Amino acid sequence: MLSLAQNPRLLRLQNLHQIPLKCLHTSPIPTPTPSPSPSKPTSQILKIRKSLLSRETTAVEIAKTFLDRLRRTEPHLKSFLYISPADAVLKQAEEIDRRIQNNEEVGPLAGVLVGVKDNICTSDMPSTAGSKILENYRPPYDATAVKKLRENGAIIVGKTNLDEFGMGSTTEASAYQVTANPWDLSRVPGGSSGGSAAAVSARQCVVSLGSDTGGSVRQPASFCGVVGLKPTYGRVSRYGLVAYASSLDVIGCLGSSVADTGIVLQAVSGHDKFDATSSKQGIPDFASQFIPSDYLDSKPLNGLRVGVIRETLEDGVDPDVISSLQGAASHLEDLGCTISEVSFPSFSVGLPAYYILASSESSSNLARYDGVRYGNQIFADELSSLYGHSRAGGFGTEVKLRILMGTYALSAGYYDAYYKRAQQVRTLVQKSFKAALEENDVLISPAAPSVAYRIGEKKNDPLAMYAGDIMTVNVNLAGLPALVLPCGFVEGGSSSLPVGFQMIGSAFDEEKLLKIGHIFEQTLQGCCFVPPLVANDF
Amino acid sequence: MGSRAFMVFLTHRGSSINPISNVSHLFLKKTPVQYKNQRTQKYFSTKAKSSLEPPNLPRLAETARISLTPDEVEEFAPKIRQVVDWFGQLQAIDLENVEPAIRADTEGDNMRDDLPQNFQNREAIITALPSYEEPYIKVPKVLNKE
């Protein structure tokens, strides 16, 4: 359990907004508590690989540890919609052990337990996208990202909960269950990849896949104190991702360290003939960015230009979130970065533009769930009633609302006023980012205007819910990569709540984000992002 | 929190205290989005800004093929109106001569040749069909009676 007394970083961050920032550089940096020293985030994937190859442990033992924790924590969290039977998981682990025993080659993700968001297709598990309309749907194929994970030795442990079709920011819009935040069970884990973030946070699995249309990997990463990576649009094949808004959707990764998200990205990246929007750009060796902290000099990020997006720190953002971002900025400055401020004039209009595009595209994409091609069929004498009743029974409220809004925006005569204008705003947003990233290596902002809020707090106010996406949607409009990583804690009732910040890079420059992110987390003193729920295990 | 969050967008640029102004080398280029009419700058106002017809929910539901219950119509109508009004703020921005971007400007098309290919797991697709009578897939009646 974290407390103020045990966590000097927390003190530092909390006091920050009361002190003029320049004082920070002259004030002594609090020394981390020597014992028990919160360990630096280490790559769980590399740790597993090392312990397997050195025969220190077995894949079966590792799998058992995770399955045991999963069994213990899942009744509180409900992060999974489907959990692989234990014997299926152990069978795959045994096969890995057998190969290692025989000195056969094993993939870089051998023995790594992965949670997969339930809107990503898996051939041996249901894939419901959190919707009743796809209840019991079993795809006849694996999504390319899942296929690649398996080829690399990963074991898919289950399917994680989400807001129906990814439409939501809390995971409360799942047709099946509400997932709790591992840091405070009365709060939401964020969304829509809330299950994927909660599962990694509570160490129910090592890493997970999510999807990010407007922030659905990044905001839950911030709420749950894990690392979330949204790759460049086109970096990862979307074959097998249930389409929501095709001009924005990407598959992303969540992990408990920057290195883990980078290793997963490495595995799932690349062009795929089944997805014409997947890129043919070369894939750099992301792992080469992860320099062990012992080899870092005192200013490892010297000369790097970091721009703080001014519009993300205005009224309406929690002061605690702002001070956390300032703390992150000053930490980056300590590491040698030059911090400056960037103005982003079209920032706020990106939000309605995003919602026009997303709802319009969803109204078209979700037309396929008609009770005939997909989905539970509700019988009717006449065809349009069959469609209407099947869709009425299969979709939840938020999905219906978005389809209806999108239908409105795409109505004859309205296209120019809504969809086209939103696309023009997208051009402005892309230009703003381009200009800002010509003068800066990366841009930073909060990941969300607040920390995790209470379950039910925003359920009936769509605009309040949408407002929470302001920090992330512009990045999707421009298709840029962004990394969210935990940077501090905010006092929030029963326990401290983690808070993350967002780092945005140029298209296909995930490498730089991972490099900076890795150094940031390795040098951040005194923070331990393991939630109280499972702290005894570590 | 919700209504407060909206204030972010309501704030006139430059009027708030800059919380990180003490960080070195600040630069601030103030080139706000151009509005046709300065009065519409408070774009979170829910007053309709356009002459476009407000949403007609029963018609939308019919177009979208979603049967709504009377309770849903009552619940959804104000929410949809509220969001559509909010969408309306884009009418106030001067977007003349701005090209629309159909998606992220990251890479051109990577289209494969338009050739038919066999799906590898054909059996699984057929097994998943609710009703299959070789060689026909049985679907609900799709033609209405005369």
UniProtKB/TrEMBL annotation, chain A:
Region (Disordered) residue spans: 25-44
BP terms from Gene Ontology: glutaminyl-tRNAGln biosynthesis via transamidation; mitochondrial translation
Active site positions: 117 (charge relay system), 192 (charge relay system), 216 (acyl-ester intermediate)
Coiled-coil annotated residue ranges, if any: none
Record localization: Mitochondrion; Plastid, Chloroplast stroma
Catalysed reactions, as listed in the record: L-glutamyl-tRNA(Gln) + L-glutamine + ATP + H2O = L-glutaminyl-tRNA(Gln) + L-glutamate + ADP + phosphate + H(+)
GO cellular component assignments: chloroplast stroma; glutamyl-tRNA(Gln) amidotransferase complex; mitochondrion
First-tier enzyme category under EC: ligase
InterPro entries the record matches: Amidase, Amidase_CS, Amidase_dom, AS_sf, GatA
Amidase domain segment(s): 61-514
Residue ranges with Pro residues bias: 29-39
GO molecular function: ATP binding; glutaminyl-tRNA synthase (glutamine-hydrolyzing) activity; hydrolase activity, acting on carbon-nitrogen (but not peptide) bonds, in linear amides
EC number: 6.3.5.7
Keywords: ATP-binding, Chloroplast, Ligase, Mitochondrion, Nucleotide-binding, Plastid, Protein biosynthesis
Highest taxon of source: Eukaryota
Subunit composition and interactions: Subunit of the heterotrimeric GatCAB amidotransferase (AdT) complex, composed of A, B and C subunits.
Function field: Allows the formation of correctly charged Gln-tRNA(Gln) through the transamidation of misacylated Glu-tRNA(Gln) in chloroplasts and mitochondria. The reaction takes place in the presence of glutamine and ATP through an activated gamma-phospho-Glu-tRNA(Gln).
Miscellaneous comment: This protein may be expected to contain an N-terminal transit peptide but none has been predicted.
Family of the protein in this entry: Belongs to the amidase family. GatA subfamily.
Name of protein: Glutamyl-tRNA(Gln) amidotransferase subunit A, chloroplastic/mitochondrial
Organism whose genome encodes this protein: Cinchona calisaya
Gene: GATA
Automatic annotation (TrEMBL), chain B:
One Pfam family named in its UniProt record: GatC
Major subcellular location class: mitochondrion
Reactions catalysed: L-glutamyl-tRNA(Gln) + L-glutamine + ATP + H2O = L-glutaminyl-tRNA(Gln) + L-glutamate + ADP + phosphate + H(+)
GO biological process, one term: glutaminyl-tRNAGln biosynthesis via transamidation
Protein location: Mitochondrion; Plastid, Chloroplast
EC number of this enzyme: 6.3.5.-
Keywords in alphabetical order: ATP-binding, Chloroplast, Ligase, Mitochondrion, Nucleotide-binding, Plastid, Protein biosynthesis
Domain of life of the source: Eukaryota
One Gene Ontology molecular-function label: glutaminyl-tRNA synthase (glutamine-hydrolyzing) activity
InterPro entries: Asp/Glu-ADT_sf_sub_c, GatC
Gene Ontology cellular component annotations, sorted alphabetically: chloroplast; glutamyl-tRNA(Gln) amidotransferase complex; mitochondrion
Purpose: Allows the formation of correctly charged Gln-tRNA(Gln) through the transamidation of misacylated Glu-tRNA(Gln) in chloroplasts and mitochondria. The reaction takes place in the presence of glutamine and ATP through an activated gamma-phospho-Glu-tRNA(Gln).
Family: Belongs to the GatC family.
NCBIfam families named among the record's database cross-references: gatC (TIGR00135)
Subunit-level organization: Subunit of the heterotrimeric GatCAB amidotransferase (AdT) complex, composed of A, B and C subunits.
Name of the protein described by the UniProt record: Glutamyl-tRNA(Gln) amidotransferase subunit C, chloroplastic/mitochondrial
Source species taxonomy: Eukaryota, Viridiplantae, Streptophyta, Embryophyta, Tracheophyta
GN (gene name): GATC
